[in-house]
Structures are given as C-alpha cells and as structure tokens.
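Worked example 4.2. Below are the chains of a multi-component assembly; read each line carefully before continuing.
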Amino acid sequence: MDTSQLLKGVLDLAVLAVLRKDDGYGYDVVRRLRAGGLNDVGDASVYGTLRRLYNAGLLTSYVVPSEEGPHRKYYSINETGRVRLAESRETWRSFASTLDGLLGEVAA
Amino acid sequence: MNTQALGVEYYLAGMRAALDDLPPSEVAEIMEDVSAHVAELSTELGENETLEQRLGPPEQYAQELRQAAGYPPRTERMPVTTKGTLLTRPRAAAWGLAIATGITLLAGAAALREPGILLLPGVVLVLSLALVHDRGPAQPEIMALPETRKVQQWLTPEAGTPAERALTYFRSLQPAWWLVRAGLLGLGAVLLAGRDILGFLFVAAIAVVSVYAGPRAKIDRRWLWFSLPASALAVGLLFQVVDATANNLAYNTSRQSYPAPITQSYENIYAYDENGKLLTNVLLYDQRGNPINAPHQYYGCGGGDPQPMIPANRYPRPKIDYENGTCYTVTPSMSAPSSTSSTPSSSSSGSTPSSSVSPTSVSPSK
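Applying the procedure described above to all two chains together yields the following structure tokens:
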C-alpha cells in the first residue's frame, strides 16, 4: 500500500509532534520526520504543511541569522498548536484502534 | 561551488515563477523557507548530482508544496494593479524607517544642543512601525519589496570575493559595535545630564535598550525600528563630540597664539617724554610701517565733521564730547590724563613719566 496517501492525512499531526519539544526550521523538521521513520515524506510537503499550520495560527516563526547562507526561519508550536496536537492525537488513537479492531477481525 | 550557486538561483527562480499567482507576502514567506532549504541541500549534493535529481523539477516542488499548504491550484497570474498598490503599508513602513534613520543621523549631530529634535524621527519611527507591527517578526512583505531586495543583493556579494570577506568581517564586529553604540549613547546622555534632565533620561534609556535591541533585531526584524536609528544617533553623537573637541582645541590654540591687538582694547594712547611732558600729535606705526589705529568710534565726530581729516594713528586722540546733542572734539592737550582724567592715570601716568619709555621707542618710519 502506498504510504504517501496515508501520510497526507496525518502530516499535520506528525509535524506538530516533532515540534512539540524543540523549535525547528524547515529542513530540520524534514530530518526529524525521516529519523522518526517517515522515509517517504517529501520536502515540499513538509514546507507546505508548515505554511498551512502557520497560517492557521498553530505555529509562530522567528528568523535566526546563519553564518553561511540565507537566514533560517524557525517554527515553534504555540498554545493553540499544543491544544490541536492533543486533540489530533486522541482522534488518531481512536481511529487507529478502530482500524486495528477491524484488521484483527479480518486476520482472525 | 559557482555552478552550485547558479543551480540554486535557477531552481529558486523556477519556484518563484510557479508560485507567482499567490499573494506576494505569502510567496516571500515560502521563498524564505525554501531558499534556506535549497541552499542547505546544495551543500549535501554529490559530485554529479543536481538539485532537480534530488527534489524534482521546481514546478513539481512548487505543486507539492501548494497542495500541502492548502493553496488553490495554479491560476494564471492575475494582472496585479501595481499602480494602486505602489504605496503599500510595508513600503511606507520601510521608507519611514529609512528616512527616520537618516533624520536621526542629522539630528544626532545636534542632539546635545537640542535633544527635543529627536522627537521628530521618533514620531516617524512609531508611525511606520505601527503600520507593520502585526506582520510578524520576519517582515516578509518588507523583505519582498524590490528596493529591499536590491539592498539585500548589494549586502550579499558572491562568496569568496573581497567584498564578501570584508562584509563577513564587519558582521563579526557587530556585537562589539553594539557595546560601542551603548557607550556613545551613554556618553551623550552624560553630556546632557547637566542641562536637560528629560533629554538625559531619553538618551540614557535608548542606550540601555540598545544593548538588548542589537541581538534581538537579528531574530525579530521589528527591532530594526529601534536598532537602526539608535546606531544613527550614536554616530551623530560621535560626530558632535569630535566636532566640539576639535573646536575647543582650535579655540584654545588661537587664544594662545593670537593675542588681541593692543589698539583694539584701548581707547586712546598718551605718550610722554622723559621729563614727563605729554607728547601730542604722535604718529604710531607698527614694524611694517602700517599705522596703528584705535577703533573708529573714537576717531572723530562722524561723517559730517567739518574739521580737517585727522590721521587715525595720531595720538592722543581728540576727546569726543557730546553736549546738547552736538559733537565736540576737544583738543588732546586739555584732556591729558596726568592732570585731568583719572582713567588711564593708574596704568600709564603713574609709571611712564619716570620710567625709561622714551618717545623715540616709537619711531615713525614714514
């Protein structure tokens, strides 16, 4: 099964999750997602998701100067973002267990 | 290195073109993210690897980003009414900042005399910041203005060139400049302290906040509305302090080397011979043969004087008397200080007659 289709629905959740502890700039977030096992995540999708979450008011951003190359724009999760992350996690868990239940029936 | 830089530019240009139907502020935000991304990726590329191999063509990258960001699908670029939007809030704010910084530089040079002058750039700054205060720390709209891009381009020369090395060096000095700036502002505040307590508090507050504003402006560009004018004020103050010091030095040396000519501080000169007899009609000349003239108001009775011309260097001068509105010239012998007047007697008549100052010491060369 093509995981990229699945990923589309949960990329918001994944991005919020990796920003939960530390702020990060775009490529940072991409790396964290890949390190977490989401190998197929596309760079552009992550950048787009960051923009969408920012425009939805779940993230704030600030610029950090870089010695070499362009300045980096860091994103950090705000209170609204944390609330959304908690809600989405619950939704995901109940959804996953529902699906697990269904799959368990199939397997049995 | 160079081809990579070209590749990055090419890739970003392709993306910008593919996104150009979106609002400019949003495009600026995206490009801020993406240019950092592409630049970082380009350093990781292998020998014969290109950005397109790694990321796909820019159009595809843009398309994927669009979908994930929830932007509408690509439409033909709307003919944006550039005429109506020439004076946007970001542009007004950016120019406000630039103009206020310029004014502060000029005003800073006069701030020690008239600190109230700083209110003018202050008002411009507050107004221009108010225009864009809600646009976030990165101020993408201002960064996307063509004039800002030009400045940025100018400030980021190609890597490896001498200009780039010089700029990098100056950037490394920035924290030192923040301290120097605070010091200059503090000095300005101290110089104001004796005269203008409000001005002192104002400049001292700027000095203190400027230490915080320097590093802060790197993260939140809105602090530039404080940091840039603070630098301008510090430079202006420096000019003024240097100027005042130079003037002071020049004034002191001029006082030492050019004593005021004696003829300008005396109304009249009385010469005596060795017997204590007042000499009249003495003509005085300096070493070059120029007449030594006392100031004009002691010369005679003005333009309508019917008397024959008296040489200006002939001493003692006739004494001018004003009686009933008419001007008289009194003959000098009658007003000799030794007998009648007491004004010059303390200095000249007491010592001169007995001393060795002889009339021959002043020898007319004509």
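Take a moment to check your reading of the output against the notes. Strands of chain A lie at 24-25, 59-64, 72-77. The helical segments of chain A are 3-18, 26-35, 43-55, 79-107.
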